Amino acid sequence: MLSSPPLTSRSAQLGIIMMLGSAATFGLQDGFSRLLAENYNVLSVVTIRYWFFMLFVLGFSATREGGIVSVARTSRPALQIFRGILLVTQICTAIYGFTIVGLVGWQVVFASYPLMIAAMSVPFLGERVGWRRWLAIAIGFVGVAIALDPQASLLSPQIILPVLGAVQFALYGILTRIAGRTDSAETSFFWTGVAGAIAMTLVAPFAWNPPVGGDWGWMAALCITGVAGHFLLIKALEQAEASLLQPFAYFGMLVSAAIGHFGFGDPVTPAMLFGAAMIVAAGLFTLARERRQTQPSKGDEA
Question: For the whole model, what pTM was predicted?
Answer without folding.
Answer: 0.89
